[in-house]
Design goal:
The protein is mainly β and 743 residues long. It has seven domains: 114 residues, Macroglobulin (MG2) domain (Immunoglobulin-like), CATH 2.60.40; 83 residues, Macroglobulin (MG2) domain (Immunoglobulin-like), CATH 2.60.40; 86 residues, Macroglobulin (MG2) domain (Immunoglobulin-like, Sandwich), CATH 2.60.40.1930; 86 residues, Neocarzinostatin-like (Immunoglobulin-like); 101 residues, Jelly Rolls (Sandwich); 101 residues, Sandwich (Jelly Rolls), CATH 2.60.120; 100 residues, Jelly Rolls (Sandwich). It contains one helix and 59 strands. The longest helix is centred in the N-terminal third of the chain and has 8 residues.
Length: 743
Amino acid sequence: MSKKKTALAGLCWLLCWLSLPAWAQISPSLSITPATGEVEKAVFLIEIDGLEAHSRYRIEVDFAGATVYATDEESDAAGHIPFPISSTPGDQPGVYRVRALHNGNLVAQGEFELTAPAQQATGAQVTVQPQRAVFGRPQAIQLADLLPNTAYIIEIITDQTQQLAYQRTHMSSQSGEIGFEIFAQAGDPPGAHTINAYDEAGRLVAQAGFSIEKPLARDVRLVMNPQSVQAGDSVGLQVDGLAAFDAVSAQLLSADGSLIDTLATRASSDGTAALLFATPADLAAGEYTIALYVDGGELAKHNLVVGTTPTGESATTPPKPQQPAPTEPAGAATMSVEPLSAPVGSRHRVRANGLAAFESLVFEVGQAGEVVFSTPQLADASGRATLEFLTGPEDQPGEYSIKLLREAGNQPTASFVVTAAESAEPTPMPAPSESPIQVIESRLQSGTAQVSFQGTAGRLVEVRVESAEFDPAATLIGRDETLIIASDDGRGSKNAILGPLVLPYSGSYLLAVAGAPLMMPQGAESGGFQVEIEALRPQPLRSGETAFALTAESPRRYYRLALAAGDTLSVSSDTGGALDSILQLVAPDGSEFAFDDDSGDGLDAEFSKLAIEQSGDYILVMASFDEGVGGGVLRLEHNPVRLLDERAAAVTLNDKSARERFVFDAAAGELLVLNIIKRSGDVADLFVRASIEGMEVMSHSTMGVPAALPLPFVMPMSGQALLALEKVGVDDGITLDVSLQRP
């Protein structure tokens, strides 16, 4: 058992007590709410009334004839003692008796019951195919016999080091299945790994092992075709024998070593890469060099003749790489939607599996028998397709259906529910008996301390470590001793603030506190500190203006923002000089994404055109630097990322807006051509990069921009890519048309 301290108001009880005659005697009473709860999940509120004011009482919890928990508590001025108590791992089902003792005498007692865990999915299975895979090669994870439409936490642990390599929440399908793929990338250790699946209560429901082989040794082979081209023609480079996902770059150099152009990409999981140089149309005839680099080291060089060949014949452009031919569509396709229910303005992600490689299909969304949205797609090389869409104010609440239209095979369907938009009014705080803040007092011993607490899976919390005696640093540690998040100085103060973050499982958490800044040896050896664990209920923040007020009771405001990779965000606070405001944007994993104090007018905070790197729910924290009270207005400008396709999209880059972003879906091995047409202006340097989940799949840099700049590249992996165009240097700016061609 563990005790949770809380501040519970006893105003009603105090008023009643004061209204009684001075000679009236009130018998002590003990109440427990609720009366029953599930083992390892239950939280009971114990309240004792009718006690002597400001007196010490012994509280004991007995089970099976033995005392399993005891604490000394002091009653308040009204003779009231409240405290919540939670079931912890190891507790047994049965009836527990709570006793209140004063000077060894029993004054009140009550009972609560712990029940056995609710029925869970039995016989859950997890398989990994193949069991052993070379570094970079995909491995398919499949879980079956789970509860339908239920969230499960999937963790992957490296056996040798016991380090957490992967942790995400997955929603099971209507048939109780979860399927996804993994592959080892740079920084992942080879060797044996264990995959664990936990339910929402933190119970292990399935487990399996698999191995990742060491990366294959490089045996690089480079082919350049043709060896000679006319100015303006293209030359292709085909590289084999690389390690999976190697960073590959090539430079076009003049005879004196001057850089003319550079291209970069990533090797595929098979260790192959393809690059295609488009030589400038005004390139002078002569001999040039193409140099190939892998991870920064030079591997090979080839001479390139621009102009006529030694025999006087004109060079020809190399043939385009052949797109893999689609195979016959598979029959057992499945489809899932996440989340299954969300208010208007939320994002939904649809995943289809079991398709044929490069199969053509259509996602069709309908409501009340009418099609409201449809879009064609192409499955990737693994037979998967993903659709992500955002509901808007024009969408009606209700149930929607999604159908996957295919030329052959089954046509799976799924459904989701759109609820009414969340109220823009602040979320009401819980009643005093449901205080969202747990407070724990402790002290350093030899410079460190450890505090444990119980958490619930899916709950959004903020953990604050405060001390008037030293500068605290804190680390939150989960099961299997995995590090979840760490903090030293939070929001401009010396105190540690972790989160807001969503707790990944239900059960025990460990907070390690040190008396020194992280990664530094000096610091306090002793001193008291306080830990506050606050359960948060952020309100949605929409574009435009939103009024806020900071009070002594509510010194911080929390807002939820659903953002996608590539979105840009501008937020400013306007307090009219009433506050020294601060803003913090927290990423989905609980880490600080951005912080600002005085970038706005006066002492107000401001974010300007933040570029979002990862899709998910972000938390915006509004507070004041000196914990002052007052109000003002938040202004939000949210620009969703644009989808790039064959239609030309206008892009303007200048000193005020130096970067533009797009997203596009592509399959592994697919040949794409990014077409950039200059409309006006010029820049000193233009950088073009594409990445999937943070891994770079294409990059190009150029000094000045030609009238037409085609950038062909082959995708090394499947997924949604984030494309960024960025100018560097001070100049007049440039206007471009950008499109994506799929030859």
